[in-house]
Design brief:
Blueprint (H helix, E strand, L loop, with lengths): L1 H17 L2 E5 L4 E5 L6 H4 L5 E7 L3 E3 L4 E6 L5 E5 L5 E6 L11 E3 L6 E2 L4 E5 L1 H6 L6 E5 L5 E6 L4 E2 L4 E7 L2
Antiparallel strand pairs: 1-14, 2-3, 2-13, 3-11, 4-10, 5-6, 5-9, 6-7, 7-11, 8-10, 12-14
Length: 172
């Protein structure tokens, strides 16, 4: 009987460890760019956290996982989301896009709202960004990076909405 409990505990611990992994799915269609290569030093230096960037092919951002909207920037250019594993993501559309004061951005969700992976969160105008000499790159940043022992990005050059983008392992 004791040995059976040891096996149960062993397999329960393995299952728990496997559940500590999380996948972040792509919130946009576009070309993948290493976060360190974006033209905004705050993001490139990973001061805000580790992540990845996407040069968008169309103007929409979708939920990267099931979770909740934690914050929406007043100008609609950025959104913070969190999932049940505690992954906190900042999705920031464009570099210096705050300068537009919300022009070209339409937020489709509210703070506190539950979201489903793939759900459209924000629509935005790539042409408005470009016409104002702003880079439309989308930065996806794990703001609580320290809670994870490993954050690995996929090796693809392009991505599409719902494709695997980042793999995270919770720190033990």
């Amino acid at each position: 009987m004791i040995s059976m409990n040891i096996f149960k505990n062993f397999f329960n611990n393995i299952a728990k460890k496997e559940n500590e992994d999380c996948i972040v799915y792509s919130p946009a269609n576009g070309d993948i760019l290493d976060l360190k290569n974006v033209s905004d030093e705050v993001f490139a230096s990973e001061t805000m956290g580790k992540g990845i960037a996407i040069i968008p092919k169309e103007g929409s951002v979708h939920a990267p996982f099931d979770g909740q909207v934690m914050t929406i920037f007043p100008t609609g250019h950025a959104i913070g989301v969190k999932n049940s594993m505690g992954v906190e993501l900042l999705i920031h559309i464009g570099i210096n896009s705050v300068e537009l004061g919300g022009e070209g951005f339409k937020v489709l969700v509210k703070e506190g709202e539950r979201i489903n992976q793939g759900q459209k969160l924000i629509e935005f105008s790539i042409s408005t960004l470009i016409e104002n000499n702003l880079d439309p790159t989308i930065m996806i940043v794990v703001t609580n990076t320290d809670n994870f022992s490993n954050i690995k990005q996929i090796d693809n050059e392009q991505t599409e909405i719902g494709a695997e983008l980042l793999f995270l392992r919770r720190r033990e």
